């Protein structure tokens, strides 16, 4: 018998803090599809490793389902980051600008949709109303039984003000005030040009997910959103800052919401469905920045 260890992280809401953005290349490297041949049991002990995530998915597939049971007192919310865009590949800041998926992003969306289609209990699909998320959600919804996509603007990425449309390298010199605001350690710091603070992002997206959880207790739903938004949802679910690792395009992150507004993270950053699809190594927009 194969035993699968489950890791749960429980918390009540905690204040958030901003994170510094790393230097990003204008030509980020791509990683080949992950191969299950490279999986080892010792690597599985590293919870956030790609091999560990792939191993857990492979084992759960053999067992029948990774999401086979939903507690009637819990809403299981499968939070998926949108597929890749040309601006992700270029290292260009998107924020609220409406950029569609590129060909790689559509392939990634099909891959995650095919994975989720194996789960018979998905009852609803929610999405940010921005094209890159909405197109990803529509592919998932169609593949999972022609479900309707419910659009929610509160699931959008953080508005990044004057930085939107710029590549990170030029933003430093072109918009120094906005750049400084982005890198501020103050979570209430807004970004010039109509940009949001981290607190504002946190309040709107966590409120949205809580409403979804309250409505779908005992059910399994999919929410398609953005890298910065997912980081804020993660902060709501645990006390001690970010979970390790990047939030890559179409990564699967599973949240359990239960009575008393308790949140748990069941699974994080899983891209094992991308076994035949390339993806951006940088996770641009899904590492320690948003966009």
Automatic annotation (TrEMBL):
GO terms for cellular component: cytosol. PROSITE patterns: PG_MUTASE (PS00175). Substrate binds at residues 81-88, 132. The active site is at 82 (tele-phosphohistidine intermediate), 157 (proton donor/acceptor). SMART domains: PGAM. It holds the Pfam family His_Phos_1. GO terms for molecular function: phosphatase activity. It comes from the Eukaryota. Belongs to the phosphoglycerate mutase family. This is Phosphoglycerate mutase-like protein 4. It comes from Momordica charantia (Bitter gourd). The gene is LOC111024768.
């Amino acid at each position: 018998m194969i035993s699968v260890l489950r890791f749960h992280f429980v918390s009540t809401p905690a204040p958030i803090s901003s994170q510094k953005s790393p230097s990003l290349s204008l030509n980020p490297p791509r990683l080949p599809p992950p191969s299950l041949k490279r999986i080892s049991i010792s690597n599985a002990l590293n919870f956030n490793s790609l091999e560990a995530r792939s191993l857990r998915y492979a084992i759960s597939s053999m067992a029948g389902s990774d999401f086979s049971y939903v507690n009637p007192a819990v809403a299981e919310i499968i939070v998926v980051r949108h597929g890749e865009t040309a601006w992700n590949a270029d290292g260009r800041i998107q924020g609220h600008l409406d950029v569609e998926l590129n060909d790689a992003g559509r392939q990634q969306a099909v891959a995650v949709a095919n994975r989720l289609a194996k789960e018979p209990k998905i009852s609803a699909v929610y999405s940010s109303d921005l094209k890159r998320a909405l197109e990803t959600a529509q592919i998932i919804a169609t593949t999972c039984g022609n479900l309707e996509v419910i659009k929610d603007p509160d699931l959008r990425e953080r508005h990044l003000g004057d930085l939107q449309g710029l590549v990170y390298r030029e933003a430093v010199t072109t918009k120094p005030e906005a750049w400084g605001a982005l890198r501020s350690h103050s979570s209430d710091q807004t970004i010039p040009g109509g940009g949001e603070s981290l607190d504002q992002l946190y309040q709107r997206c966590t409120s949205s997910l809580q409403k979804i959880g309250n409505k779908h207790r005992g059910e399994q739903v999919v929410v398609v959103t953005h890298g910065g938004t997912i980081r804020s949802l993660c902060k709501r679910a645990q006390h001690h800052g970010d979970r390790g690792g990047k939030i890559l395009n179409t990564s699967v992150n599973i949240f359990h919401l239960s009575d008393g507004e308790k949140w748990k993270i069941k699974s994080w950053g899983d891209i094992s469905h991308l076994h035949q699809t390339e993806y951006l190594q940088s996770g641009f927009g899904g590492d320690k920045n948003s966009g």
